[in-house]
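ZP: hey, is the DQA complex queued? I don't see it on the tracker
AM: it wasn't, my bad. submitting now with these inputs:
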Amino acid sequence: MPKILVLNGPNLNLLGQREPEVYGRATLADVEALCRDTGARLGVEVECRQSNHEGVLLDALHEAGRAVKTGELLGVVLNPGAYTHTSVALFDAIKGAEVPVIEVHVSNVHAREPFRHHSYVSPAAAGIVVGFGVDGYRLAIEGLVRQRRA
Ligand SMILES: O=C1C[C@@](O)(C(=O)O)C[C@@H](O)[C@@H]1O
């Protein structure tokens, strides 16, 4: 069965308790269950990982790039959290590993503080889903599967 990696970055382990007026009440476990259910409906296995460490995210993207080349992985659904707005290294990893990435943000970053308006990840992304709450993960998985099966 083809696979998708759902990769969550810093502070997303706090979903559900973290600023619920911005991010809602769903926990990371809820999000991961939603992702696995979405994958099951589409005939895709979903692996979920979360890290608060930039280097761990980079290593996961490099590994994902290798798995895409062997045909084992379709791509990555990535919520880079605050690294979205700071990390040239994430941009370089996505480009360098040649991994199809759908960037997801739970909140509408463009309606928030100006420092959230710029993303280093977006120019390297194959698609972007912003502002749909945690349902954005479902939309991103559906979009990635459609893109990769087209
Ligand atoms: O950690 C996050 C979460 C976020 O990526 C989102 O999902 O809305 C938006 C980022 O600006 C923020 O730093």
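AM: back. The chain has one domain: 3-148.
ZP: great, adding it to the tracker
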